[in-house]
Design goal:
- It is built from nine helices and 15 strands.
- Strand 8 and strand 9 form a beta hairpin.
- The chain is elongated.
- With 340 residues, it is of the alpha/beta class.
- It starts with a helix and ends with a helix.
C-alpha cells in the first residue's frame, strides 16, 4: 500500500539505526506510477515500506538495496519501459524512471529523515532537500535536510506542490515538498458518517469526528478516529485550524447552523453541508450566513453526481468531491446536475 510519508517514517523510526536503504525517485520521463520525490525504504532483512511502482520494480530494488548496504555507495538506477530489451519493458507505464538508492546510517545523519518525521508530527510542512550524486559516490558524501515551515505557513505546501531539481554549479539537489496528511473533520457522528471516516483513513488521511450528543460519535463506531464530544463553539481554534476540510452532517438544523457559524471563520479548503438545497437555505438562514461567506469551496448539496443513495455511495460522492478540491481538479457539482 502507498503510505503517506509520516506513516512510512513512523514505522521506520523505531529501528532506523539498522542499515535501512532509502530509494528515491529522482526523475521521470513519460508516464510512471509515482512522481519524482516518491520515497521507499528497505530493511536489510528484506522488509520494505512504501512503493515506487505498481509492484513491478520492488523485487529488483530489494536486490539493489542489499548491494547498497554492502558497498556503502550510492546506486543510480534507470528503468526504461520504452526499451524492449529493458527488464522493465513489460511494466506498461511506458516511461523512463531514475531511482537513487542510499544506505542510511550515522555517517550521513540518516539523510535528515528524523527531522522530517519530527516536523510532520508537529503538523509542520516544508521542503526535504537531498543531494543527487553520481553512481558509486560514498554515502557520506551526500546530505539530506529539511527546511521547515511553521504551522501557520504549512498550507502553502499544497497537495499539488511538485518536486523540482535545483542545479547550483556542479551540485544537483532534489527539493521535495512535504506536508502532514490531509486532516478532515466530520461534524456529526451518525451511521452515514462511518463510510466517510473509513474511506478517508484508507487514503491515509487523518479523521476527527465532532459531535456533542451522547448517542453519536461513539469510539467503537469510528476506529482510528479522534473523537471530540463538544459543541463546535467549544472546540479549540488550534484543532479546527489544523483541518483541511469539514463535512457538516449532524442531521440537526440547529447544530449544523451553529457549526457553520464557527467553520466560516476558519480558512478551510472545503466545507460540505449534507441535504438538499431547501435545507441548505434554512441552515444558512439560521446561521445568518450566505454561500459567499466561506473562503474555500462550499458544497451544498454536498458531493458529486456519482449515483447511488446508500451511505457508502453518498460518502464516496462527498469524499470524491473533497479530494478533487484539495488536489485542484476539475469538478462536476451535484447542484449543477440537480438544476439541469
Amino acid at each position: 500500500m502507498v503510505q503517506h510519508l509520516v506513516d512510512l517514517l513512523d514505522t521506520w523510526l523505531p529501528s532506523y539505526q539498522e542499515d535501512w536503504v532509502l530509494a528515491v525517485l529522482t526523475q521521470v520521463q513519460g508516464s510512471s506510477y509515482r512522481k519524482p520525490g516518491a520515497i521507499m525504504l528497505f530493511h536489510p532483512m528484506g522488509k520494505s515500506l512504501g512503493m515506487l511502482s505498481g509492484g513491478c520494480l520492488e523485487a529488483d530494488l530489494r536486490r539493489h538495496a542489499q548491494r547498497a548496504i554492502q558497498t556503502q555507495q550510492v546506486i543510480q538506477l534507470t528503468y526504461d519501459a520504452t526499451d524492449e530489451s529493458d527488464t522493465s519493458y513489460q511494466l506498461g507505464c511506458g516511461g523512463i524512471v531514475n531511482i537513487m538508492m542510499v544506505s542510511l546510517n550515522k555517517s550521513n545523519n540518516y539523510l535528515g529523515l528524523v527531522s522530517v518525521h519530527d516536523a510532520l508530527m508537529r503538523g509542520h510542512a516544508g521542503v526535504y532537500q537531498i543531494d543527487v550524486v553520481a553512481d558509486g559516490t560514498p554515502i557520506n558524501k551526500l546530505s539530506g535536510h529539511f527546511v521547515e515551515q511553521g504551522a501557520e505557513l504549512s498550507t502553502s505546501v499544497t497537495l499539488k506542490s511538485k518536486t523540482r531539481a535545483v542545479v547550483d554549479q556542479d551540485t544537483t539537489v532534489l527539493h521535495i515538498p512535504v506536508r502532514p496528511p490531509v486532516h478532515i473533520g466530520i461534524f456529526g457522528g451518525g451511521l452515514d458518517a462511518q463510510p466517510i471516516a473509513q474511506m478517508a483513513q484508507t487514503l491515509g488521511w487523518k479523521v476527527s469526528v465532532f459531535d456533542e450528543r451522547t448517542a453519536y460519535a461513539r469510539t467503537y463506531d469510528f476506529p482510528g478516529c479522534q473523537i471530540i464530544k463538544k459543541p463546535t463553539a467549544e472546540v479549540s481554534t488550534t484543532l479546527l485550524a489544523s483541518l483541511d476540510a469539514a463535512f457538516v452532517m449532524s442531521h440537526n438544523l440547529q447544530i449544523d447552523a451553529k457549526t457553520l457559524q464557527v467553520l466560516q471563520t476558519i480558512p478551510l479548503a472545503y466545507i460540505s453541508l449534507l441535504g438538499p438545497t431547501h435545507r441548505r437555505d434554512k441552515v444558512l438562514s439560521m446561521a445568518e450566513l450566505s454561500v459567499d461567506d466561506f473562503s474555500g469551496y462550499f458544497s451544498a448539496p454536498a458531493g458529486l453526481a456519482l449515483g447511488g443513495e446508500l451511505p457508502g455511495s453518498v460518502g464516496l460522492s462527498i469524499l470524491s468531491q473533497c479530494h478533487g478540491v484539495l488536489y485542484q481538479s476539475q469538478l462536476t457539482s451535484l447542484d449543477t446536475v440537480m438544476l439541469s
